Amino acid sequence: MRFTINGSKREADPDIRASLLDLLREEFRLTGTKKGCDHGQCGACTVLVNGRRINACLTLAVMHQEDDIVTIEGLGSADNLHPMQAAFVRHDGYQCGYCTPGQICSAVGMLDEVAKGWPSHVSDDLSSPVLDEAEISERMSGNLCRCSAYPTIVDAIREVHDA
Amino acid sequence: MKTFNYERVASPEAAVAAGGRFIAGGTNLLDLMKLGVETPERLVDISRLDLNTIEEKDGGFLVGALVPNSDLAADPRVIANYPVLSRALLAGASGQLRNKATTGGNLLQRTRCYFFYDTHAACNKRVPGSGCDALGGFNRIHAILGASEQCIATHPGDMPVAMRALDAAVVTLRPDGDRRRIPLADFYRLPGDTPHIETVLESGELITHIALPALPPGARQLYRKVRDRASYAFALVSVAGVIAVENGTITHAALAFGGLAHQPWRDPAVEAALIGQPPIEAAFDAAATALLKDARGHGDNDFKIPLARRVLIAALRDLTGEPA
Ligand SMILES: Cc1cc2nc3c(=O)[nH]c(=O)nc-3n(C[C@H](O)[C@H](O)[C@H](O)COP(=O)(O)OP(=O)(O)OC[C@H]3O[C@@H](n4cnc5c(N)ncnc54)[C@H](O)[C@@H]3O)c2cc1C
Ligand code: SF4
Ligand code: FES
Ligand code: FES
């Protein structure tokens, strides 16, 4: 099976039952993407597929042949951080860091949704949502943080949005 | 997870000919397969079928079964014509899940009954004839209307509740090539003594579209969802309402409820209590009484009876009061 992962063409022959998450971690050794619950409940496995954030644990690898997949490793590197990674560092948007790759990928996908004008559950006006703190919390509710670093996560995302 | 055969199909015709279980977003089916609750032998991947557009048709709209929940909620035409639908979708799941979940898959998502998920428990829905551990067990999220002695599960979806209030219809393709159009009112079954059969879909029948009809001009719409936390939780009780008031009289009322029954619940008696009446508390009370006259709690979910009353009355106030 062929995939585009972080901009490179990659091939693998995973078990038919492998989730996209297991493909990334076990076949491609991209262990930045984390497994929390394996049931779509925590967001630790969030990656960008064809530009959209999804839970890698609730989709089959075989269904993503030829797709364009971006993981935390593809967003930036230690010496060339993505603006969202840099903002998380600046604001201490984590404690243990386990949820962080998922938070960052989710935040990047989320700001893209905001740029497209997508509303959320807390938008007063569905046609022109404004990204305040309540909006960020609602839009990021699919990413749990066991250390409860939520306030600084929101600060980091807000800084990238306002930049 | 039990292994399976996998095939990706290129057309709806090929999908129905393939003879297997459809997988669209996979967010419900894979969850259940990992737990051994669902054990399909053959998965037919319909995720790349060309059924992902929203088109105007007969004054209403035709939504492809593969339109993701996110896209449906954010579509300017849906926001303009069916804000109750956008609101219901946005109240469900998370941003990541809505990006993957599809319109057809959302309609067919299965109950969140704890015992249905637990392969060690007795559950007539999972294993017909095995019993029901929710009756007499912990049943806080369970049904108060339309349940049976065999099953008291609820349909967990938000989007289907809005679609029920909008009088949507499901358009399908059958393996014999026939197409049918099934009003959502006839689509879901009550549990009765066959809780494992949840809809009128036949084996191998593919949902291709959902049809949304035009609404009466001036109708106001609302989706109100009550849950254990403010986001990313299933409804305990929800209501989708579409109401029109002309010259001080309610002329159109469509009210559907989530969290109460095995299907998005709608009862003509509720609407009859409102239509022709002025939008006043006495009418709202009568509507709530009509809704709940046959309601029955099972212990842990008794609270849903007064909660449903309050949620309905609050929704009716919002729908008929001064616009915010
Ligand atoms: C953590 C979590 C929280 C959630 N919270 C909510 C919530 O608050 N509210 C809510 O409403 N939902 C919620 N959901 C459920 C989610 O909305 C559903 O999982 C999703 O809508 C299912 O769509 P899908 O395309 O992924 O379906 P799939 O998993 O692909 O399929 C589901 C079922 O539909 C069948 N199917 C799919 N498409 C078709 C078709 N075109 N024709 C015939 N059969 C078809 C499949 O065979 C399968 O039986 C939540 C899910 C998770 C994991
Ligand atoms: S309520 Fe229905 S789904 Fe739940 S255990 Fe009983 S039979 Fe199974
Ligand atoms: S591991 Fe995917 S959502 Fe938790
Ligand atoms: S930083 Fe520890 S789980 Fe979020």
From TrEMBL, chain A:
<dbReference type="GO" id="GO:0051537">
    <property type="term" value="F:2 iron, 2 sulfur cluster binding"/>
</dbReference>
<dbReference type="InterPro" id="IPR002888">
    <property type="entry name" value="2Fe-2S-bd"/>
</dbReference>
<dbReference type="Pfam" id="PF01799">
    <property type="entry name" value="Fer2_2"/>
</dbReference>
<dbReference type="GO" id="GO:0046872">
    <property type="term" value="F:metal ion binding"/>
</dbReference>
<keyword id="KW-0408">Iron</keyword>
<dbReference type="InterPro" id="IPR052914">
    <property type="entry name" value="Aldehyde_Oxdr_Iron-Sulfur"/>
</dbReference>
<feature type="domain" description="2Fe-2S ferredoxin-type">
    <location>
        <begin position="1"/>
        <end position="75"/>
    </location>
</feature>
<dbReference type="Pfam" id="PF00111">
    <property type="entry name" value="Fer2"/>
</dbReference>
<dbReference type="GO" id="GO:0016903">
    <property type="term" value="F:oxidoreductase activity, acting on the aldehyde or oxo group of donors"/>
</dbReference>
<dbReference type="InterPro" id="IPR006058">
    <property type="entry name" value="2Fe2S_fd_BS"/>
</dbReference>
<dbReference type="InterPro" id="IPR001041">
    <property type="entry name" value="2Fe-2S_ferredoxin-type"/>
</dbReference>
<protein>
    <submittedName>
        <fullName>Caffeine dehydrogenase subunit gamma</fullName>
        <ecNumber>1.17.5.2</ecNumber>
    </submittedName>
</protein>
<keyword id="KW-0560">Oxidoreductase</keyword>
<dbReference type="InterPro" id="IPR012675">
    <property type="entry name" value="Beta-grasp_dom_sf"/>
</dbReference>
<keyword id="KW-0411">Iron-sulfur</keyword>
<dbReference type="InterPro" id="IPR036884">
    <property type="entry name" value="2Fe-2S-bd_dom_sf"/>
</dbReference>
<dbReference type="InterPro" id="IPR036010">
    <property type="entry name" value="2Fe-2S_ferredoxin-like_sf"/>
</dbReference>
<keyword id="KW-0479">Metal-binding</keyword>
<keyword id="KW-0001">2Fe-2S</keyword>
<dbReference type="GO" id="GO:0034875">
    <property type="term" value="F:caffeine oxidase activity"/>
</dbReference>
From TrEMBL, chain B:
<dbReference type="InterPro" id="IPR036318">
    <property type="entry name" value="FAD-bd_PCMH-like_sf"/>
</dbReference>
<dbReference type="InterPro" id="IPR016169">
    <property type="entry name" value="FAD-bd_PCMH_sub2"/>
</dbReference>
<feature type="domain" description="FAD-binding PCMH-type">
    <location>
        <begin position="1"/>
        <end position="217"/>
    </location>
</feature>
<dbReference type="InterPro" id="IPR005107">
    <property type="entry name" value="CO_DH_flav_C"/>
</dbReference>
<dbReference type="InterPro" id="IPR036683">
    <property type="entry name" value="CO_DH_flav_C_dom_sf"/>
</dbReference>
<keyword id="KW-0274">FAD</keyword>
<protein>
    <submittedName>
        <fullName>4-hydroxybenzoyl-CoA reductase subunit beta</fullName>
        <ecNumber>1.3.7.9</ecNumber>
    </submittedName>
</protein>
<dbReference type="InterPro" id="IPR016167">
    <property type="entry name" value="FAD-bd_PCMH_sub1"/>
</dbReference>
<keyword id="KW-0560">Oxidoreductase</keyword>
<dbReference type="InterPro" id="IPR002346">
    <property type="entry name" value="Mopterin_DH_FAD-bd"/>
</dbReference>
<dbReference type="InterPro" id="IPR051312">
    <property type="entry name" value="Diverse_Substr_Oxidored"/>
</dbReference>
<dbReference type="Pfam" id="PF00941">
    <property type="entry name" value="FAD_binding_5"/>
</dbReference>
<dbReference type="InterPro" id="IPR016166">
    <property type="entry name" value="FAD-bd_PCMH"/>
</dbReference>
<dbReference type="Pfam" id="PF03450">
    <property type="entry name" value="CO_deh_flav_C"/>
</dbReference>
<keyword id="KW-0285">Flavoprotein</keyword>
<dbReference type="GO" id="GO:0016491">
    <property type="term" value="F:oxidoreductase activity"/>
</dbReference>
<dbReference type="GO" id="GO:0071949">
    <property type="term" value="F:FAD binding"/>
</dbReference>
